[in-house]
Amino acid sequence: MLKPLGDRLVLEQVESEEKTAGGIVLPDSAQEKPQEGRVVAVGSGALKDNGERVTPEVSEGDIVVYSKFAGTEVKYDGKEYLIVRESDILAVVQ
Amino acid sequence: MLKPLGDRLVLEQVESEEKTAGGIVLPDSAQEKPQEGRVVAVGSGALKDNGERVTPEVSEGDIVVYSKFAGTEVKYDGKEYLIVRESDILAVVQ
Amino acid sequence: MLKPLGDRLVLEQVESEEKTAGGIVLPDSAQEKPQEGRVVAVGSGALKDNGERVTPEVSEGDIVVYSKFAGTEVKYDGKEYLIVRESDILAVVQ
Amino acid sequence: MLKPLGDRLVLEQVESEEKTAGGIVLPDSAQEKPQEGRVVAVGSGALKDNGERVTPEVSEGDIVVYSKFAGTEVKYDGKEYLIVRESDILAVVQ
Amino acid sequence: MLKPLGDRLVLEQVESEEKTAGGIVLPDSAQEKPQEGRVVAVGSGALKDNGERVTPEVSEGDIVVYSKFAGTEVKYDGKEYLIVRESDILAVVQ
Amino acid sequence: MLKPLGDRLVLEQVESEEKTAGGIVLPDSAQEKPQEGRVVAVGSGALKDNGERVTPEVSEGDIVVYSKFAGTEVKYDGKEYLIVRESDILAVVQ
Amino acid sequence: MLKPLGDRLVLEQVESEEKTAGGIVLPDSAQEKPQEGRVVAVGSGALKDNGERVTPEVSEGDIVVYSKFAGTEVKYDGKEYLIVRESDILAVVQ
User: Fold this and answer.
1) What secondary structure does DSSP assign to chain F, as a single string?
2) Which of A11, A19, A57 to mutate to test binding with chain B, by most B CBs within 10 Å of its CB?
3) Lowest-confidence range among B83-92, E55-64, F66-75, G16-25?
4) Shortest Cα–Cα distance, B3 to chain A (Å)
5) CB–CB contact E5 G52 (8 Å)
6) For residue G53, how many C-alpha atoms fall within 13 Å in the half-sphere facing its CB?
């Protein structure tokens, strides 16, 4: 399993079936193209000045919209994941 | 529904009828063209150093003027939205 | 009415009559050309680290000198306004 | 009168007579050419994190050396002034 | 032995045998290519404003995924090591 | 006399006689060429967040090594001085 | 003697004999080439927000690995030294 550090999250691609139901369709021309993913792992949170950590606003299982050029792709155990910072998450789909 | 994170807001376009009444007409030549939108969702607010969040100055339903190149366009459930940071909001129309 | 957010101000142009009396004449060649305006609305102030807001140094009705390339022009109810940050205000004319 | 905001100062040119007595002669080739001026108005001081203001180190009447490309020239009531930030002041002539 | 300073870590390459078991396969085309390494030494942690140090999130022996262009290669006692900052570590493999 | 502001210092050139005794010889090719000077005036110190000032580490009379491209040359009462920030001082010669 | 200011250190080159015993061999091609030096003087430490100084992690006599392009070369009393910031020190050799 991949445990992200700090304010990072591990996302997996949301499959097309889910996208169709209440899904997000993204315009091709947007400069910063948002995309959809499901959160599979959440880091311990960004570090505050006093040494405590910020509780992340997203949880495992959340479907999130993120900025396209954010993050690093990683292939682990045969599956592809994206590691992004929480600040690259625009919104949670509820 | 789209729940924006942190200091982000979800805006929808204001229709022309509303624009005419007390509306804002924006010059085409301005380098940073402001635009009008209605707030449909407000994030939990920017994070302060002490881990608390700043109460946003805008509320759902507010008509706001924002900088044109701010934000990311998202299409959700067939409608177009704009996700912006509160700092990209110039003024609230009252 | 336009209510500016945070450390922003809404300014309107000062008419020439007022400029003549104790007015400011600005050189054309200056790299950063200052200009004169009257404050018509003041935001709630910049946010401090502790979540409080800085009391703005200018008030409604003040005649101020601001940097030319600052701010965003907005046309509202048929009148032109300029929305600037308080940090773009160089001085108050007293 | 011009009342500068925050950490800004209003300076007027020092006349040549004063320059001759214990005056500063500035090399033409210096990349950042310092210049001499007399302080005619002092702002309320830079804002600290706790919302208080820093007491300026210069006072009205001080002769100061400032960096040449600092500030904005303003003409007011027929006289030319320079509005600079206190951080652009290199030294006070005593 | 190399003792890294502050928020730095010393990593050694993970051998291919380990990579095969539950290993990470990294795409060649990624702009920021993540890589795998084993932590052999951990610094005292980044410095907080109050002068204390942040407890690192990784420990000696951890297998970590890091950004490729991070860090400095050092050869010591005939072995190659990589000295990286903890912020360059994307995730820990568990 | 020149009284430097904040974290600034006024330096004068050290004469060659002094340089010879325990002197510093500086390579010509260095990108950032350090140089030697004697401190003739010390500012009140850099401002801390709490509004107090940092006590400078150098005193009047100290011989210091500073980075060449730091500072501003000023000619005052017929003598040349250099006004630098304390952070441009690399070391004190003892 | 050279007394470095703030978070600076004075280093001298480590001679080849020492390098051979448990030495560090550095690749020529590395973008940021680390190098070895012996600490001969330590500054009073970086300044914290509260005006105290951070206790340096290295001591006189330590052999350290530093980034090649860091620091300023100084020749003093016929010997060459390098003045670097502590943040340019990657690791201590133990």
Assistant:
1) -EEE-TTEEEEEEPPHHHHHTT-EE--SS-SS-EEEEEEEEE-S-PBPTTS-BPPPS--TT-EEEEETT-SEEEEETTEEEEEEEGGGEEEEE-
2) A57
3) G16-25
4) 5
5) no
6) 17
Query: How many separate domains does chain B show?
Result: 1
- Answer whether G93 sits within 8 Å of E73, measured CB to CB: no
Nearest CA in chain C to D8: C90
Domain range for residue C19? 8-93
| Confidence tier at G17 by pLDDT (50, 70, 90) | very low
For C13-43, write each residue's pLDDT tens digit. Answer: 886 444 444 556 554 444 445 689 999 999 9
In a domain, A43, yes or no: yes
Strands C34-42 and C79-85: unpaired
Q: Do residues B33 and B26 touch, judged by C-beta distance below 8 A? A: yes
Residues of chain D contacting C94 with CB distance shorter than 8 Å? 1-3
Q: What is the CATH number of the domain that holds E46?
A: 2.30.33.40
Contacts for A37 with CB less than 8 Å, ≥ 6 apart: A11, A12, A13, A14, A63, A64, A66, A82
Distance from C-alpha of G25 to C-alpha of G69, rounded to nearest angstrom: 17
Residues of F within 8 A of G1 (CB-CB) are: 93-94
Task: Tell me which chain E residues have a C-beta less than 8 angstroms from the C-beta of A75.
Answer: 24-27
Does residue F79 form part of some domain?
Answer: yes
Q: Indicate yes or no: CB of E52 within 8 angstroms of CB of A51.
A: yes
DSSP annotation of C33 = -
Q: Which chains touch E (3 or more CB pairs under 8 A)?
A: A, G
Identity (one letter) of the amino acid at A62? D
Residue A26 maps to a domain: no
Amino acid at D26: L
Q: What CA–CA distances, in Å, run from A19 to A25, A36, A38, A40, D29? A: 8, 8, 11, 17, 66
- Do D and F make contact, counting contact as 3+ CB pairs within 8 angstroms? yes
Pairing status of strand F89-93 against strand E24-25: unpaired
Task: Tell me if G38 sits within 8 A of G72, measured CB to CB.
Answer: no
**Mean pLDDT within F82-89:** 94
Q: How confident is the model at residue G53 (pLDDT cuts 50, 70, 90)?
A: confident
CA-based nearest residue to A25, from B73, B53, E7: B73
* Chain pair C-D, CB pairs under 8 angstroms: 65
User: Is F26 in contact with G74 (Cβ distance < 8 A)?
Assistant: yes
Residue B22's identity, in one-letter code, is: G
Chain F residues with CB-CB distance to G88 below 8 A: none
Instruction: Let me know: does D66 contact D92? Beta carbons within 8 Å.
Output: no
Residue B33 has a CB neighbour count (10 Å cut-off) of 16
Considering the domain boundaries, does residue A24 fall inside one? no
Token readout for A6 is 């700090």
- What band does A9 get if pLDDT is binned at 50, 70 and 90? very high
Q: Do chains B and C touch (3 or more CB pairs under 8 A)?
A: yes
Chain C residue numbers with beta carbons less than 8 Å from the beta carbon of D77 are 22-23
DSSP state, residue D14: P
Which ipTM did the prediction report? 0.76
Distance CA E52, CA D33 (A): 43
